[in-house]
Design goal:
Blueprint (H helix, E strand, L loop, with lengths): L10 H7 L11 H5 L2 H34 L4 H36 L6 H31 L11 H37 L1
The structure holds fe (ii) ion (2 copies).
The site of one fe (ii) ion has 5 residues, from helix 4 and helix 5.
């Protein structure tokens, strides 16, 4: 597939997958004006920091609840499984971004005449980012399905209701996070690579 800005236009796909996130499909003007470096620092300091704190917390709460309710609660087992798939994938994704992808993009963004090898490396990393993001969106969709759109049953316990609320906040934060990377950061890298 030829490398074009359109091939990275995931906002419409995201709006179709998550109609409730349609308002996020219009990239914020403020981040269009900011430097790539400032955007990356913002993503790391807010969205990555939130996930580093929230994923272990949610994991612990879900494991505790599953232990309390026993293996007979099929829905909880399924939720536990889907959440931990998402957690593992996200933690590996954050590690890759922080240790390899973001430093590579920052090096490229601050380079006036990047070497062809650095351009090629950046094209590869943004393609890999897009692939990872598609997997994460598929897992978010699965999580939404398993939790019936984060809707508790009338007899759901307080802990389960709290977990659903936190998962819904995680989804909203992750959609905004992916929106910044897919719709602002990646097109900026592609634009520079094409110039
Ligand atoms: Fe990220
Ligand atoms: Fe990402």
């Amino acid at each position: 597939m030829p490398l074009t800005l359109d091939s990275f236009d995931s906002a419409r796909q995201m709006a179709v997958a998550f109609p409730e996130a349609a308002s996020l499909a219009s990239p914020s003007e403020v981040w269009h004006e900011a430097s790539v470096c400032a955007l990356i620092h913002y993503i790391t300091d807010t969205h990555h920091a939130y996930l580093h704190a929230e994923l272990p917390h949610l994991s612990q709460s879900l494991i505790q609840l599953a232990r309390g309710q026993g293996e007979q609660n099929g829905l909880l087992c399924q939720l536990n499984r889907t959440f931990h798939l998402l957690k593992d994938e996200l933690e590996e994704h954050l590690r890759q971004e922080e240790e390899a992808v973001f430093p590579t993009i920052i090096r490229f963004a601050s380079c006036r005449s990047p070497a062809p090898s650095l351009i090629a490396m950046n094209i590869t990393v943004v393609h890999e980012l897009e692939t990872d993001h598609r997997h994460l969106i598929a897992l978010l969709r699965e999580l939404r399905q398993v939790t019936k759109h984060y809707t508790p049953e009338p007899d759901s316990c307080r802990q389960y209701v709290q977990i659903l609320r936190r998962l819904q906040c995680l989804e909203a934060d992750l959609l905004e996070h992916l929106h910044l990377e897919n719709d602002i950061l990646i097109p900026r890298v592609v634009q520079k690579a094409l110039n």
